[in-house]
Specification:
Layout (H helix, E strand, L loop, with lengths): L10 E3 L5 E3 L8 H4 L4 H36 L10 H5 L10 E6 L6 H11 L20 E3 L1 H4 L2 E5 L11 H8 L35 E7 L9 H14 L4 E6 L7 H15 L6 E5 L10 H38 L5 H12 L3 H13 L5 H6 L1 H4 L6 H11 L1
Parallel strand pairs: 3-5, 3-6, 6-7, 7-8
Antiparallel strand pairs: 1-2, 4-5
The structure holds guanosine-5'-diphosphate and magnesium ion.
The site of magnesium ion (MG) has 5 residues, from α4.
């Protein structure tokens, strides 16, 4: 074994971009080659990165506690994306009162515990009653936090996900606001007298579910088997325009170390086919002792903020759809972007090739309605090579 001039050059890169670099170690003798053990240095490097990350994490946690918490404490609809987003598109939002966030997932996943943790974090009297014995618990659509902010509520739902049962129509009724707060979420195998169930056929945006939090238990032996089920639900959510948040509740006495959390988050997002930036791991602080530390509170705040962000965007898209439906009714194109393009083709005598190119672009970009086209127009127009076509669509959209 020769004497290495540069024994090693190791570089650790933290996600944030912080770099820990080890300069080449000069050695003159064989003995010195062993002065510095590679594993020890790697461990030291890891410690430096962890310390740096911990410092950054603490900073981030403080930041979330100082900025997100007060925002959610006095939350009003529009606070996350900003009311100017609605004003800019001339959307009337006076009908929207509370933002409705639905918690859904298997029985015993930790939905009600998440409500309890939120109540505790906001210093509220605990109204929620998690099932310590693992019973079914919630069977009505139960509203929580209404009195807290007056701006959003969490709707706790009846657990589902027996892997072989279909809850699609039950979920659909809840999403559309046909099953309303305090209604029994009735199932065919129930043997209980129910309170009157609203089951109205009217679809009112203000009464709908606007945002979704899917809760799953990391320790559930079926955890890895939820992917197919989740994909079914996800298709429904996508069609309806939701961007759900996935919360994986984790039962452990100790706070979860940040590195472990990141690994679990990636693992969970992968296992469930969920977006990593909308997937959170949280310790179930109700099932375990110790209360929530700052880091855990920050995660809970992020969960709520992300759900509210999705909910506000959902409302915006729905409002745009409504608005464009009216415009499209006048134009008699029915709201679909395909019909819109064909109507323009007739009016402006476009070549078929141009129409095909446009159709392909809109399909690739998931643009199905004129509302979506209008909403994404600034971005999309850069992808259309013919200026004449861009000009026509621009003026027709205004
Ligand atoms: N030890 C303990 N466990 C609890 C308590 N409350 C709930 N749990 C457990 O936490 C998990 C989630 O419960 P819960 O939030 O009611 O589930 P949900 O059906 O999704 O609402 C279950 O495994 C419960 O058994 C409690 O007070 N003490
Ligand atoms: Mg429950």
């Amino acid at each position: 074994m020769g004497v290495g001039k540069a024994m090693f050059l190791s570089e650790g890169t933290a996600e944030s971009g912080a770099k820990v670099k080890f300069e080449p170690v000069q050695t003159n003798s064989i003995r010195q080659e062993y002065v510095c053990d590679k594993n020890e240095v790697a461990a030291a490097a890891r410690r430096v990165i962890e310390m740096e990350e911990k410092g950054k994490r603490e900073e981030a946690v403080n930041n979330i506690l100082q900025t997100v918490r007060p925002k959610l404490d006095k939350y009003k609809f529009g606070d996350i994306i900003g009311m100017q987003q609605f004003r800019a598109s001339k959307l009337d939002t006076t009908d929207i009162d509370d933002v409705n966030i639905l918690l859904f997932g298997p029985t015993g996943a930790g939905k009600t515990c998440l409500v309890s943790m939120t109540e505790t974090m906001f210093g509220l009297e605990r109204m929620s009653a998690p099932q310590a014995g693992g019973g079914e618990g919630t069977i009505h659509l139960e509203p929580f936090l209404e009195k807290h902010t007056g701006g959003f509520k969490l709707l706790d739902s009846r657990g589902f996900f027996t892997l072989d049962e279909d809850f699609m129509s039950e979920l659909n009724d809840i999403l559309k606001g046909q099953t309303q707060a305090l209604d029994l979420i009735k199932r065919k195998y129930d043997d209980i007298d129910s309170r009157a169930v609203s089951n109205t056929n009217e679809e009112i945006l203000a009464n709908r579910i606007h945002g979704l939090i899917c809760v799953l238990d990391y320790n559930d032996p079926r955890f890895g088997k939820y992917k197919d089920k989740m994909n079914q639900y996800r298709r429904l959510f996508k069609k309806e325009g939701y961007s759900p948040v996935t919360v994986v509740s984790y039962k452990t006495e100790e706070a979860i170390p940040e590195t472990v959390r990141q690994t679990k988050q990636e693992e969970a997002a992968f296992a469930l086919g969920a977006a990593i930036d909308r997937t959170f791991i949280i310790r179930n602080a109700v099932a375990q002792s110790g209360g929530m530390d700052n880091n855990e509170q920050a995660i809970l705040l992020q969960i709520l903020e992300t759900a509210l962000l999705g909910a506000e965007q959902f409302i915006k898209i729905r409002k745009l759809d409504e608005k464009w439906k009216k415009v499209d009714e006048k134009r008699q194109t029915g709201g679909g972007v395909a019909e819109f393009i064909i109507s323009l083709q007739k009016k402006y005598k476009w070549e078929q090739k141009d129409v095909d190119d446009l159709s392909k672009l809109f399909e690739d970009e998931d643009i199905g309605t004129t509302a979506a086209l209008k909403e994404n127009w600034e971005y999309l127009k850069g992808k259309i090579p013919k200026w004449g076509i861009v000009d026509i669509i621009s003026s027709e959209l205004h």
